[in-house]
Each structure stands twice: as structure tokens, then as C-alpha cells.
Amino acid sequence: MNLSRFDRFVWMILSALLLALVGMALALPLLGLPDPQPGWDEQGIGAYGPLSIQFPRGIDPESAESALSITPSVGGEVKWVGERLLFFPSVPFRQGVTYTLSLREGVQARDGRTLKHGLIWTFTVRSPLLAYLAPSASAEIWVQDLLTGESHALTDTGGRVFDYTVAPDGETLVYSAYNMQKGMDLWQVRRDGTQNRKILDCGADWCLNPAFHPQGTILAYSRRLAPLQEGAQPGVPRVWLLDLSAGTTQPISPDPNISGSEPLWAPRFRRLIMWDGLSGGLRGVDLEAQQTILIPSEMGMNAVWTPDGNALLFTRLIIGETTAYAGVYRYDWDKQTTESVLGGEQSPWDYGVPVFSPDGKWMAVGVREVLGSPARQVWLFRPDGTAGNPILQDAMINFSSFHWNPQGDALALQQITLGSSSSRPQIAVLNIDSRSLRIVAEDATFPQWVP
Fold first, then answer.
1. Which of 357, 366, 369, 372 is nearest to 413 (CA)?
2. Is the peptide bond before 50 cis (omega within 30 degrees of 0)?
3. What pLDDT, on a 0 to 100 scale, did the predictor assign at position 23?
4. How confident is the model at residue 77 (pLDDT cuts 50, 70, 90)?
5. What pLDDT score does 228 carry?
6. Which of 180, 132, 176, 137 is nearest to 153 (CA)?
7. Distances 166 to 141, 195, 315 between C-alpha atoms, Å
8. 245: Cα within 13 Å, side-chain hemisphere
9. Which of 99, 104, 231, 408 lies 20 to 30 Å (CA to CA) from residue 258?
């Protein structure tokens, strides 16, 4: 076959390109993998993580995970977002500890490149802030640094904040706020008060009760459609999901006979619980198994997940001979069984919803004697309801809204003195070991820790 000069030229170019490609394929393994980059700074990370490491494009996830180690050792779960590895600890990282994260050499990419040397990083855990709403009648979100006593407002809405939640990593807060259409929108603000932006415009609908999924990627919230006429109440509340990355939102169920408010995610799995007023109970939804449950209840959204996400503790009304009071019950998700944990028909005590310590070893519970003072006191119990003992008592003060700090050595709470029309709620922090109580904010409500 005779080739023209042009044909020979084309073949020369193609041969050169082929040789170049072969050379690149042979050279890539020799070039090595660029160093992964940590996703934290000298201020440290939140106690609940996640640790974040950005790997080069095309990384082999299994190879990267097997090369990582943390000292002191911490168990947890790994999740990938693109080439970014996220590590969520099973128990909070400890303040005052310097952790070492090691990455061995040999981590591989899919194109054959490998990490030619090991890497070592260190990180610490920052002190949490305490968030709350103040003043109670015209609220903004405030945060206080308990080490310095300094506090400042994160929002400036003219007192239109309704409620809020804190992201698991402590970097942002999401809150609902009234708008000019008499509805409520959802907004997001960073822990330092910057980048305050609307993330969901709800118009005349009411969007409230935001709740972060434990890995921070999805927000559940309650939505009530705009009233049909001026002065009327908004529609039946239903739970919606907002994908924070895509910005898309949709109801959790298309069934008009299912309502939902105050959603609460399980610590693990893709499960959540909500109050379904139309059905008269607590409705649980497992998004992965496409499973729903209904626990009859007369007391609204009074429930909490156990730390392993396998069960719920909730309060149930008990009708006595002369009065009514609440006991605490445990519902096992897989077995679908219910058993008493605190109180019962023979108990003269009224119990609130327990709040688990971060390590799951204790529950803080508001307790009052049925025939005594109407004020709830603070008790600690083991998860099975044993070893109960009061740690904060004052017959004239009602304690509520308990929130453990990430280290499990302090409890933020809301308190109000009974018997006076001029009393205003206060935010306080109780040291668990010393039993000492510190007032941190006046005329304030709804405390939450910002890790």
C-alpha cells in the first residue's frame, strides 16, 4: 500500500500521540499522589466532628480509609462527599486532648498514583459556645463564650426569630423567622454571625422546627400552608426535607392523612420521629427501610432517641384516682415493644422527657412530686431508670429545656421562678460534679450548645 505524504504525516502524528499517552501512563505512578489537605484550622474542630480531609481527584476510598489512624483511638463512621473524607466520632472528641491523625504512605488513586510518604496532622477540640433566644418576647439568637463571659447576637431581624437549631459540626445555625407576608422563612448563619442568608423562601407558609440530620446534609422541618383567608390559622403541619447541597425540598410523605411537627432525627440511621396530630401519636419514619410506625400518645412531641438510635423514650399520660401525671416509656423500634422506664400507676411522681448525656451513661430528667410543688426539679438516672438522684432542687423554681454540653460535665437549662407575674425565664449552666449553678442570661429561652 502506497501512502501519500499527507497520510504519512497523519500516521506520524498519531504514533507520536500514542507514544506520549503510553509515556504518561508509565510516568503517572512515578509522579506520586499530591498531599491530601486537612479541613480544620488552629482553632480546632467541634466535639462531634467531623474530621475532614480533602483527597486528590480519583482517590481509591478503601485505600485511603485503611491508611488512616487516630491517636488516642476513637471509633466512628466514615462518609465520602466526592473526594472529601468525613469522619464522625461515635462519642465526642475530648477537650484538652491533642489528637494525632496519621496517613500511611501507599494510598492509591485509580490511575495508579500512590502517596509516596506518610503524613501526620494534629488537632484539638474548641470550647463550645452557648446559644439561646433573647429577649423572650422579641427574640434574636445570642451566643455566649462561657470562658470569657462575652456574648453577642448572631441575628438582627427586629425580633422576628421563632426557633432555631445548631448544625452537628457547630459551624452554622438554622433558624425560622417571620417575614413580611406573615409567613416564616428558614435562614442560615455561621457561628461567628457572618454569612447570614435565607436558605428557603416560604412566602406566606410557615416553615419552622428545623432539625439537622446527624451528618448535616439534610434538614427536616415542619411546614404549614398559608391561611386561606386573613386571620385564619395556617394549614395542618407536615414534615418536609430540605437537601442543603441541592437546595431542593419535598414533603416526607404524600399522604394527606399524615401530619407532622417538631421532627427529630435518630443519632444513627435515616430515621426520624415527629408528632402526628391527625393520627394522635408519635410517628416514626425510616427513610431507608421505607418503614413507618405510630406510637399512641396524648402528650405531643415528648420523645427522645436512645444514643444507638434503636429505641425511643417518650412520656405517656397516666390517670390516677385524683390526678394525672406522666411516666416515661421505652419503645424498641425493631421489636415494636413498649415497656415502662420511669413512673407508672403506683408512682407518685411526674416525669419529663429524659435527655441523654453524650456518652449515653446518664439521663437528665425533670421530676416533680405529684402532690408537692408544681416545679420540676433536675434528677439523674441510668438509662434503665435506676440510680435516680436529685442534683438540683428548689421548690419555687421550675427547671426545663435541658441540654448536655459535649463533654458531659455540664447541663444548660432554662429556669423560671414560680409565684410572681414579673418573673422572666433565665438561662443557667449546672456543673454536674460540683452541683453549682451559674446564671448566664436573663429573659432568655431555649438554650443549645454550639460545639
1. 366
2. yes
3. 45
4. very high
5. 82
6. 132
7. 11, 15, 25
8. 7
9. 231
Alpha-carbon gap, residue 397 to 418, rounded angstroms? 6
**Over the range 81-120, which residues count as b (16 or more CB within 10 Å of their CB) and which as e?**
eebbbbbbbebbbbbeeebebebeeebbbeeebbbeeebe
pLDDT per residue as tens digits for the range 103-139:
999 999 999 999 999 999 999 999 999 999 999 999 9
Measured distance between the N- and C-terminal CA atoms of the chain, rounded to whole angstroms: 76
**Burial level of 21, CB count in 10 A (0-12/13-18/19+)?**
exposed
Per-residue b/e over 121-133, b at no fewer than 16 CB within 10 Å?
A: eebbbbbbbbbbb
Residue 22, pLDDT above cutoff 70 = no
| pTM for the structure as a whole | 0.90
What is the distance, to the nearest Å, from the Cα of residue 364 to the centroid of all Cα atoms in its chain?
Answer: 19
Q: Identify the helix (H) or strand (E) that includes residue 315.
A: strand 311-319
- How does the average pLDDT of the chain come out, rounded? 92
Task: Report which DSSP code applies to 127.
Answer: P
Question: Phi and psi at residue 121, in whole multiples of 5°?
Answer: -125, 155
Cα distances (angstroms) measured from residue 202 to each of 180, 181, 216, 372? 11, 9, 21, 45
CA torsion angle for 355, 376, 140, 138 (degrees, to 10)? 150
